[in-house]
Amino acid sequence: MKYNQNSVIIVGSGLGGLICGLILSRKGYKVRILEKHNVIGGCLQSFKRSGVVFDTGMHYVGSMDDGQILNRILKYLGIWDNLHVKKLDEDGFDIVTIEDKEYKYVNGYDNFVNQISGYFPGERKAVVTYIEKIKSIVHSIDLYNLRPVSSVGNIFSQEHLKENAAGFIKSLTSNRKLQVLLSALNPLYAGREDNTFLYIHSVITNHYIESAYRFIGGSQQVADELAKRITENGGEILTKKEVTSFEFKGNELVGVKTKDGDIFEADLFISDVHPSVTLDMVPDDKIRKSYKRRILNLNNTSSYFALYLAFKPGALPVMNHNVYYYGYAQETWASKTFNMENYPDKYAMFPVTENYDETYTRAAAVMTYMDINVFKKWENTTIGKRGQEYKDLKKQFAEKIINLMEVKFPGIRDKIETYYTSSPLTIRDYTYTKDGSIYGIERDFNNPLESFIFPKTKIPNLFLTGQNLNIHGMLGVTFSSFMTC
Length: 485
What we know:
By secondary structure, this protein is an alpha/beta fold. The protein has helices at 15-26, 69-77, 109-119, 124-140, 165-172, 176-182, 198-210, 220-232, 275-280, 289-296, 387-408, 412-415, 424-431, 448-451, 473-484, and strands at 7-11, 30-34, 46-49, 52-55, 61-62, 85-87, 94-98, 101-105, 212-215, 236-238, 243-249, 252-258, 263-265, 268-271, 303-311, 322-327, 347-351, 363-370, 416-422, 462-464. A hairpin with a 2-residue loop joins strand 3 and strand 4. The two termini are 23 Å apart. The mean pLDDT is 91.
């Protein structure tokens, strides 16, 4: 099954694979995408329960106002006009609770400075310095500003690869609550206090301060729109085609083999799955041991436990914002270790938006960090075949999360119609992400060159794309896809 010259096989139909497929199909490449699941999209996947559409991973996005970067990119891809989105409250798109007080994240640099310094009157200089630093970092990123990039290794200013997010925030102020507030969106990148780049924190925080939107009816629409245009360009997307190995003739990569025994040949290959999973499918003698060892030894970001709540009709007023709850934990950073005794001590809650003019909240996804090793007993099992003990453990965690939610939302338990859960194993199996990691490979500012993955591998016609290359999220994966192409 070989295409003509300039044929491309893309392994995985996550956002990175789909954007690469669309761009290359526009440029005349013969594109074929192979997806292991029966649904495309990776972290864009949505699923329906109790009549409600829940998102797997893309709960809200930023920089979507007219003229902002993601808006411009979606228009370039040709899908903007067909997407259904709703802007979150500009005067409080994210509401952060620290102890028993609420703090609002607002859109706009000046608004943000005024809002946050209003909570902490003596800290205005710290907040201004914080915002100016974020603006400086974002301005230095060529791709973010759609400037020409001289090389794949020159996407970011090198000076910003030496700065730690937590260290910078602590240098601004000794006020512990302000430190927590400025790092409150950490669940969006699972940063660790000892190693997370300031540039990652800055890009993501800036992304939402510019504007914040939800997808009405789920983020699956993004995957579906990209796929539609790929097929219109002559490309092909095959589901239930799990790639198990890369096939060589001599030292030349010529094809991939799927679990059902099919072999697909092409000239070029792009992998949208985790780099370590990709290299596990390459024969050991076809790639340098040192390169493979480096990739396999990289740490991954934390995983999470998800609780999907369906509320009784009319029971919960509309929430056109998200909730970050830290209670008395006063700690935003992801930990190296998972403490069962203190679980959960924080959560992020993302209400579901079903239509433009809704008057009540029908559902929400609630996320908490969790180590996949908590479910190690079932690591070699598959979805739907893990038994009652596994279900009981998930229910135990779900009830603990609801108990913590009761602190901020008294009586919320009685408003829940039903709920569903997913463990790190669920994330691993649906997104093909090693260890059920939320955001793939962990970037360490202590070893910046070690934790960055370049699109081109040591195999001349094998390329990588997706959230593991540089930065995750819709914007980061798009940038990585551009560099891959």
